[in-house]
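Handoff note, outgoing to incoming analyst
You'll be picking up this chain. Sequence as last confirmed:
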Amino acid sequence: MARRRAKNKRKAGRAGIKLLTALFVVALAAAGGAAWLLLTPFGPTTETFVELKPGSSTPTIGKALENAGVIQSQYAFDLLRVFKRNTLRAGEYRFDHPATAVQVYSRIARGDVYTRALTIPEGSNIFDIATRVEENGFGTRQSFLNAVVSQASLVSDIDPGARSLEGYLFPDTYRFARNVKPEQIVAAMVKRFRAVATQLGLNSNFHRVVTIASLVERETAVDAERPLVASVFQNRLRKNMPLMTDPSLIYGLELEGKWRGTIYQSDLKRDTAYNSYLHAGLPPSPIANPGIPSLRAAINPANTDYLYFVAAGANAQGHSVFSATLDEHNREVAGYRRALKKAGGR
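Most recent structure output, in case you need it:
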């Protein structure tokens, strides 16, 4: 009897060893398979986009990646999530070469979403920006212009009378997803403006400061001249003199679709609210989106008695000339014309 029990124990022991061995082999094979799925480069060789919506579950993300041919198995991706437990970030991802599932997972965990740059130069107005938006594939020109008006409430606390976001779309380089909405673009630009305003200490008189800054921006590209140009506008406003600035006149024509690329005599007589030859005071709104130097100049203009200047863009020497009296200004204009003629101009 005792021998039989011992023999049965030996058989059971051998069976247990065989079972453990089999399980080990299976586990080893499974681990090898998982390692192969996770560590073998796989995926497209041409540009492929996968959009992961906010709130997507790990299985949903894995399935989307598998369906797009980015990974071999959604289950291997699910396994990574079990062990790593990172937050997987929504957005659009671009894949253009084979990568391991681990690399794909890491990209999504750090939110390496696909974006494209949109660069807005200083002094761009809403029409300039709308053209760039369309050229860079972020929607149509008109949809952006519609958003500029419909989202004017974004600045209602700092400029209650604003009918558009002109002046508050800060010029900078931004990065957006391909499917970004115009409303998201203008919101990002206004947010950047607010950050810059805080940086410069601008906390009141936003409409006046930004409008003057926009005029300064369009009148000179020379940073050192901006405070002087701002002083001319401030002095003329103080004396209730018309600003007589071409950029404002041009902006009024642009709003009406009447701008022909050059100023004609008839344009000087066209009675728009932005015709600063006919109307004293500031135009109804900013005429462009100023950068930091122009904003700083409008906040702290130079202390001068200048009332006139020949703009840098029109001067043969490439810099602005400032005058306190009309006689001085007329002499400077005559000098400019002589220099231009000598240089071969008309």
